Amino acid sequence: MQDLIVKYALGILLSAVTGYAAAIYRENKALKAGMQAILRDRMIQAYNHYHEDKGYMPIYAKESFTACYDSYHNLGENGVMDSIYQKIMQLPTSK
C-alpha cells in the first residue's frame, strides 16, 4: 500500500514539474520574441531617422543603437538587422 502511495505521489510530482517547466519555456519564448520585436522596432526607427532623414548619426546615438543591436543579436535570429547595423555604423557622426 505504501509503495502505491509513493508511486502515485511521484507521478503527480513529476507531472507538476514537467508542466511547470513547459510553462516557463513558453513564457520565456514569448518574452524573447517580444523583446526582439521591441528592439527591432527601435532600431528601424533610429535607422529611418538618422540614415534616411539626417544622413548622419551622433556618437551617443550610435552607442545606444549598438547596445540595442548587441542585445538583439544575442537573442538570435538576426536577419535584416545585420545590414541595417552596418549601414548605420557607416554614417558620419556630424553634418
Report on this model:
This protein has 95 residues and is an all-alpha fold. Helix content is 82%, strand content 0%. The chain is built from three helices and no strands. Helix 2 (59-74) packs antiparallel against helix 3. The chain is rod-shaped. The mean pLDDT is 85.
Unreliable runs: none
Share of helical residues:
over 70%
| Rg of Cα set | 23 Å
Strand % is: under 5%
Question: Which short descriptors sum up this protein?
Answer:
95 residues, mainly alpha, 3 helices, 82% helix, rod-shaped
Mind sketching the topology for me?
Layout: H1 2-54, H2 59-74, H3 81-89
Outline of the structure:
By secondary structure, the protein is mainly α. Helices cover 82% and strands 0% of the residues.
